[in-house]
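Hi everyone,

Forwarding the result from last night's run.
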Amino acid sequence: MAGLKELRTRIESIKSTQKITSAMKMVAASKFRRAQLTLDKSELFQAMLIKQIKNVLFELKSEEQEKGISFLLPSTLVQPKNPQTYVLFVLSSDRGLCGSYNSQIAKEAKRRIEELKNKGKNVFVFCYGKKGSTALSRMGVKDIVETFPTVIKKHLTYEEALSFLHDVWDRKEHYHADVCEIVYSDFLSGLTRTLVSKQVFPYDIVLDESDVGVNRVGNAYYGYLPDKLELLRKLSNLYMRTAMFEILINSQASEHAARMTSMDNANRNARDMISSLTFKYNTLRQSAITTELTEIVAGAEAM
């Protein structure tokens, strides 16, 4: 009977844990839907903004070729010829219970750090999220300069994205970095994410002429006011802010999706364990009842 009592206790314990994981799954699902909706809206705006920047860049390049001149582009769009100093920002979470989310980010960060160091580059690493910093330390990474709490507190706001942008820029200036990169989890779907090390300073915008349209709407041509360089400067500043917001909302959506999946797996495992333990409990209980009946029958026959 001691075995039956232990099984009952364990079954009740697993049921209590299942209630917690089920609640956490619902909370993560609610946050995930909100983050996904924000992401869907921001991606469209970001795509339109990139197209406009490419249009202006294409026309400036064409004007340079026609007139034999050279324009001084905004520094955020000029790629360094031989970058030597890199600042790496690693975005993870402060909380666990999200499967391999944080460890995968740490692995990608370590891979990128080793890749840069093998090329003889100077690398400074800043971790936003305690779990990512802990995982990198366990992997033997010694280049972490400082660790901060995760950027996103509850639901990402534009002010949080701007604050993070200022942090990135300040550290770029302080360490005289040629390139800044952010390692994060890029959201694709509820079950699919990809690890990205994205260059953010200067922004790596590839000019593909097939994506660039002429300065015409229908049959009417248009000009630029202010001039192309001033417009490009304003567009690049806006792009910096929206790109940082998109990176952070991708990171947030990925974290919530990972936690939702992890809690769903925990619920399924709990159901399987409860089913297995209940079967074992019923088997032992039936065996005990059969033994007691046998003893009663044997005692009656002896009398």
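The first helix runs from residue 2 to 67.

Cheers,
N.
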